[in-house]
């Protein structure tokens, strides 16, 4: 690659990066940013700006019995395999392993995205210890020696523009990791009524 082409590529990447960041800061959706880039910089720049180079990551800490709700969709492999009607799996005998995944992923009739190719399926990571019926489960924050699993994930997602990269609810502990985003805290998960 010539020096001129290399400089052009660096300039193109900077244009895309700053356009998406400015759009996120102003609350302009990514598709609109791509339209603007297509008109001003060309179709190839717009296509590059619209490409998602990493996957989205959503982390949920299921406190006070909340994990049971997730068991309805993605049962723990050992729980479903036990086929015990006293365990937290409501479709005993209807479980199966997803095909095409690197590691086992148990699915059932209520599992979303169960029909898609295993390479594109959801990655589920369980960490921490059994803290059932605990309002604020905290073992997840200390589950990795180098920092919190949540904080480490925010570092991995740092190059994806986002207006609010991390949201915590109430007193949930986000944990720490070098380069992690600062969480925005919402005081309650209770719905707020709109006043007119």
Keywords:
196 residues, mainly alpha, two-stranded antiparallel sheet, two-stranded parallel ribbon, 6 helices, 5% strand
Could you characterize what this model shows?
The protein has 196 residues and is mostly helical. The protein has a domain at 3-50. The chain has helices spanning 3-26, 30-41, 43-50, 67-71, 77-82, 149-156; strands at 96-97, 106-107, 167-169, 184-186. Helix 1 crosses helix 3 (43-50) and helix 2 (30-41) packs antiparallel against helix 3. The mean pLDDT is 78.
Layout of secondary structure:
Blueprint: H1 3-26, H2 30-41, H3 43-50, H4 67-71, H5 77-82, E1 96-97, E2 106-107, H6 149-156, E3 167-169, E4 184-186
Parallel strand pairs: 3-4
Antiparallel strand pairs: 1-2
Helix pairs in contact: 1-3, 2-3
């Amino acid at each position: 690659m010539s020096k001129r082409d290399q400089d052009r590529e660096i300039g193109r990447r900077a244009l895309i990066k700053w356009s998406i960041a400015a759009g996120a800061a102003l609350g302009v959706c990514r598709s609109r940013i791509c339209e603007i880039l297509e008109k001003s910089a060309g179709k190839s720049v717009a296509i590059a700006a619209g490409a998602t180079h990493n996957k989205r990551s959503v982390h949920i800490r299921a406190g006070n019995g909340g994990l049971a709700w997730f068991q309805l969709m993605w049962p723990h492999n050992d729980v479903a395999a036990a086929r015990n009607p006293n365990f937290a799996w409501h479709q005993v005998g209807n479980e199966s392993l997803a095909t095409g995944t690197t590691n086992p992923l148990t699915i059932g009739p209520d599992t979303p995205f169960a029909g898609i190719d295993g390479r594109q399926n959801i990655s589920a990571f369980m960490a921490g210890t059994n803290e059932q019926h605990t309002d604020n489960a905290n073992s997840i924050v200390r589950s990795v020696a180098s920092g919190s699993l949540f904080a480490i994930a925010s570092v991995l997602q740092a190059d994806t523009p986002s207006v609010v990269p991390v949201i915590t609810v109430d007193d949930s502990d986000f944990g720490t990791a070098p380069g992690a985003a600062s969480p925005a805290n919402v005081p309650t998960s209770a719905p707020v009524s709109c006043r007119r």
